[in-house]
Amino acid sequence: MKNRLAEPISNLKGVGEETEHLLNDVGIYTIDDLLEYFPYRYDDNSLKDLEEVKHDERVTVEGKVHSEPALTYFGKKRSRLTFRLLVGRYLLTVICFNRPYFKNKLSIDSTVTVTGKWDKHRQTITVQELTFGPKQALAGIEPIYSVKGKLTIKGMRKFISLALKEYLGDVNEILPSVLLQKYKLQTRKDALKTIHHPNRQDELKQARRRFVYEEFLLFQLKMQVLRKVQREQSKGIMHEFAENRLEQFIESLPFPLTNAQSRVINEIMMDMKSPFRMNRLLQGDVGSGKTVVAAIAIYAAILSGYQGALMVPTEILAEQHAESLVTLFEPFNINVALLTSSIKGKRRRELLDKVKNNEVQLLIGTHALIQDEVNFHKLGLVITDEQHRFGVEQRRMLREKGENTDVLFMTATPIPRTLAITAFGEMDVSVIDELPAGRKSIETYWVKPTMLERILAFIEKEVSKGRQAYVICPLIEESDKLDVQNALDVHSMLNINFQGRYKVGLMHGRLSSDEKDTVMRSFSQNEVNILVSTTVVEVGVNVPNATTMVIYDAERFGLSQLHQLRGRVGRGSEQSYCILLADPKSETGKERMKIMTETNDGFVLSERDLELRGPGDFFGKKQSGMPIFKVADMVHDYRALEVARQDAVELVRSQAFWEDEKYEGLRIFITETGILDGEKLD
Ligand code: ADP
Ligand code: MG
């Protein structure tokens, strides 16, 4: 039976060529598209339950007068009339300005209908309209569609009504009745009708609830099936090695592992030893010690006769990792090499030869690592560091580079769980949720830029004790468009201020990698006391003697970026400080600064960041791989997301899902995504 919903919209009565084009312009081609073109909001002229009304929203309520109105005058003309109104369970205060004549008409227990702004905190309504008696005929809830060009909202309503009338009967249920019953969800037919033509808010809420669950479940099913297919269709390496040799390595570390590190290492080892390919995300706050976890995993791969690759976003970070890993691996006779763009010509060829001949067992570098010119002898494990911006597609590409290679993605941007299971839904996730013992939390202050004198004094005090400081600026040089501090100016200002006493370095993205290297090296050897920099130091840089982080124009940075920057200090045993110089104009900006001063916990910050920014913006503009949901909102509907995720996991694991008739609707959906044939995931 051919699905009538797939018919073109031109089959709909009244849709001629012109209208067809108008509808195409908003992405509607088929009847199905039209039916699933949901309103983006509703105008509600009906009575509402105050419970559901947000602060400052306009509302219409009907209630009984509960107190004698009190009237006060300010001057001759201006007046304020207040009385108590009983609305359902609510006893609220109604305020009318400049309508003294209402006083005599309002008798106790009489019914009035009031429209105005609802102040949820004070429990008051400031009247815009007041009528005596019950609410007149209900105008109901009107759907508002997003339209373009000549297409009108009224027109959209008409086409959708027509489509509902003609085609609603052809709408098939996709969710099995077990799930419909379990969550008391509306059928797809009912929900479609309601979402376009709601009679009441509670009914609309139910329709929305159904689509939220459906969207989340379908998405999570896609992810879980992808995960299953990736696991089963790709033969993994079953790493085999002598446990005691790995133990020796762990015991050689200068510190005992934290419980979280040990747990995560176990999870990774299980993957590496299993016949499936590892596809794991490792989350851990800045300073939680992901590098040694990576080192241990790499050592395991090497012990089992393979090579490892560590891929990082910047060359500075690559150099730092190389330095610390060379030290760690030296006693174990492991050859660690660094591949950067500055290694050229003969040296490069020699290095690449060594990689090919297995003379190098661990190769560290940027993206260049997995490009064509690099051939490994036997690559067993790829680890990427600080790559939270990878989307699903990029992750797939990386995995396809090596043959059966295990992949571990590490990120220091703690990702709120709702986003993690969405953006990284097809992966396994490990979390280091504990910092090494003895870390002091960084004291963070938010100050106005006018307090510069005191900040200079503060830097001086720390530096005179032998410690070091970072000073971060958003720009490299002066800009006529933006009134923000630039690194060049701040550098010369500090140079003048500390002349003859302390050395001030300068670091920014326009330096060559040799220059950057020199600056960074002299800072990490404490030859430079104060480092002025743009955000190039944001990721991963580790100088434990640095205790002060000053960030200019801090309101220009997002919360997770500020947290990353702050994470450059607090890496040693001394008390560290972060000073945010900011004069934010917006409420969100102020809120961000406040949150920074309140918590050092990256997971708490990321949750707050998500609330402030919304899921679309969380990863920044570059992020791909975030799905767009029509109805569902990952932040708001996180409970539904958790439930749908769990259901998807269980379904995909169960035999019934793949065989039982009742899951056919879902199976058809999965087949259509092409995942089962190894096709591209959208
Ligand atoms: P990140 O997770 O931000 O990459 P790093 O791996 O750079 O963190 O570790 C931060 C610092 O903590 C490093 O100096 C590292 O040597 C140290 N470290 C890591 N694990 C431990 C531990 N278990 N106990 C004490 N210090 C540790
Ligand atoms: Mg790191």
Automatic annotation (TrEMBL):
Enzyme class: isomerase
One Pfam family in the UniProt entry: Helicase_C
Domain of life: Bacteria
InterPro entries membership: ATP-dep_DNA_helicase_RecG, DEAD/DEAH_box_helicase_dom, Helicase_ATP-bd, Helicase_C-like, NA-bd_OB-fold, P-loop_NTPase, RecG/Mfd, RecG_dom3_C
UniProt keyword list: ATP-binding, DNA damage, DNA recombination, DNA repair, DNA-binding, Helicase, Hydrolase, Isomerase, Nucleotide-binding
PROSITE patterns: HELICASE_ATP_BIND_1, HELICASE_CTER
Job of this protein: Plays a critical role in recombination and DNA repair. Helps process Holliday junction intermediates to mature products by catalyzing branch migration. Has replication fork regression activity, unwinds stalled or blocked replication forks to make a HJ that can be resolved. Has a DNA unwinding activity characteristic of a DNA helicase with 3'-5' polarity.
Protein name per its UniProtKB record: ATP-dependent DNA helicase RecG
Native source species: Metabacillus rhizolycopersici
Gene that this polypeptide is encoded by: recG
